[in-house]
Known about the structure:
Number of strands: 33
Shape: elongated
Helix content: 40-55%
Oligomer: single chain
Amino acid sequence: MSDDGGKRDLQHAEYEALQERYDLYRSIVETTQEGIWFVDPRGRTLFANRRMMELLGCTAEELYAADVFDFLDEDGRRIAKGYLANGFADVTPEREVRFLRKDGNVLWLLLSSNPVFDTQGRYTGALAMANDITPRKHAERDLRDIRERMTQILNLADDAVVSMDEQHRIILFNQGAERIFGYAAQEVLGQPLELLVPEAQRAAHRKSVEGFAHGAVASRRMAERSPVRARRKDGSVFPAEASVSRFRQGPGMIFTAYLRDITRREHAEKALRESERLFRRLVEGSLQGIWIHRDNRILFASQSLADMFGFDGPEQMMAQIPVNEMIAPVDRPRLWDYYQRRMEGQPVPTRYEFRCQRRDGELFWMEVLVGETWWDGGKAVLATGVDISERKRAEEALRESEARLRLLTNAVPVGICYIDLHQRFRFANATFSGWYQRPPEEFVDCAVAQILPQADYELANPHLARALLGERADFEGVINHPVGGKRHIHATHVPDKSPDGGVRGVSVMIEDITQRRAMEEQFRQAQKMEALGKLAGGIAHDLNNILVPILGYAELLYESMPPEREERTFATTVIESAYRARDLVSQILLFSRRGRAAKRVCDVGVIVREVIKLVRPTQPKAIIIDEAIAENLDSIYCDPTQMHQLLLNLLVNAVQAVGQGGHVLLTAENVQLEGLECFTGKRLTGRHVRLAVSDDGVGMDEATLAQIFDPFFSTKEPGAGTGLGLSTSFGIVQEHDGGIRVESRLGYGATFEVFLPADARAPNSAPTPGAIPRGTETVLVVDDEEPIVALYSRVLPRWGYAAVGTTSSAEALRWFQAEPGRFDLVITDQSMPGLNGNELTAELRALRPDVPVILCTGYSDTMTPERARELGIDALLHKPVAPEEMGRVVREVMDRAARLRAGPAL
């Protein structure tokens, strides 16, 4: 054999020997009863034997995936981090450490830990040898508890316990002794025992103690001795029984006496007898069945148990029924196994439920508490049981109720879920899971952040965190609905608290309030429109007062000049401008719902065709205007002029929206509504006529839609419109108790829908006014605007009347009081300082009930035609009133008053 071959054989032999030693050491490490644990400076496990894994209650994979800090409480982690960080410098080699097993139980280990260094002297970790001292710790704890309990028992005992040393000095005096003798312990400790002995008995007592100290018997019980005499602090003497014992402590002897005041013996015996009787009554009268059994035989049974199983009494039950016949056949194997294991001392449940069988064969449920006892010198089983059939039925009913509740929870349109302390779903109803397009069962045990989109989670997380701290949290926000897009929601987070006040989880209820938000927005819009309407009414009032003299004097100028005069053209321009201003004010009044509406039953189809006929010729041929008018279209009760205005505004807007070319459709049809929501805030129900104007123009965004009915709002270039068209249309719709809706998207055109109540009556025509007659009567004109008074004072004489005017209602009243018969008619404004129009009318009628009155108003929230009739006003005119209209009304009112004064014709 060559030298190289010999060397290889030698190396192989050394390797095998090394492998054998490694296997031996590995076997020793794995079989030793000490836990071995090697960790790096960060606490990560580098090696652990099987014993260490058994001690910690985890598998190798779990231990290597964890670190040493996972098995320590907060204080332990802090200390261990310090030890590992400084390489166990100045650390006691052995110490007791409290660990937490994987199952949560406490584990006490005696650790011997040492730092480990590599061949270069670098600190690489720590090696710990661990011995389980948990039983010893428990024993020490139990010993401390026993000592504490013994001290408590000793102090709570009714008997006196007194100890003394060989010099007969008192060294122990319990609370029972304090109660019996009347001394505090501090008063007698160190004093001679004879302090507690009557003076006449002290010599005999001293002799008895000396004899007991040197006798062969180390203790004497109470029953072995005659009663002794003892002395209280107040000097009174009482009989007592005493037990005495001695034991050696060090070089000396300790004597302990247990004394009982037997003057209370009879009371105690009587109380004991009463207690025994009470116990028997409790056993016999208990609703729980109580029995003792052994070897399938009932040794004792209470009356309640006999009643429970249908027997006349316990004796009959004990004589006739084996234990297994009390149990339903399906549960007998399980309970027989429990019995055998219990009798053998093996662990077995002490509380469980099973089905029992009555004497007549009826089955019922029983819950029992089982333990061991002794009976006639042998081990037996003691059991107490209660019939829980009702509870079982209640539990079944509860399960059914829970199923119904789950069904109800899944049926409600509110998202409901339950989230635990780790922000994981434990429950989600169908509505909530449907929002995220997952079945409810997929939510269980999933993290909230895993299910919710990031934006939704960031919105909800702060409120969820507050609820997990015990505070109810409500919020409103917007979530990303996978199907419905962005939805407004109201979320309520309610902490689920345990009886001790701790938070166990959070119940979350999420309501989709998108529709409610839309309705609230409609309501706010309606309020805004109402406020703007009042503002518009106030503007209209002032404008009407200004327009009266402008229009009136312009007409006077026009009539007073020859046709060839150039200035007559100027007057015509003023009149036309005044009428345009009057039309503008009329639109404002319509917007404010205070416009004059001459309503009658109309054929709306005729109005639609007239408007289309008016608009179509004026538009480019590239704009197609179509109509879709249903046959047998219902009539509506309306002001035809306002209907023309309404449709004209909508149609012109649609034409302008399509620009140089496009399509506009005007639809008229009958519809039956069931609570339709409209922009006006109304919910329309019943038969209506639907007027719709649709276009394929530029459309509108949400911001524009929110303002389209605002007065003076316009998307047109400056000078291209007043911004009153749609606000006027809105006012006309409200005036006719209808509703309006708008649908539009930017780039996709718009549709305006108007719904007007249908009227079953046939259409009629508006009356035509007659010629203006003349008169000779005297008219009193009252208005706080001087130009108006001056105008009517000039106009009325043109038709033969005498006019007397004033700007003060108080002055007019004084004139009338002075000469009530002078005036044949009174024309008064409604809104005036001092006395307003209806108040002045009341004062005038008090002086002369038959005087006719014409009331003029530019705008009034309170004065309506109905109110005017209630006040007896003969005519209500809305400014501006053209002179011709005033002349006709004056004549009509005075003729009617004359007829009333003349009485009925014969």
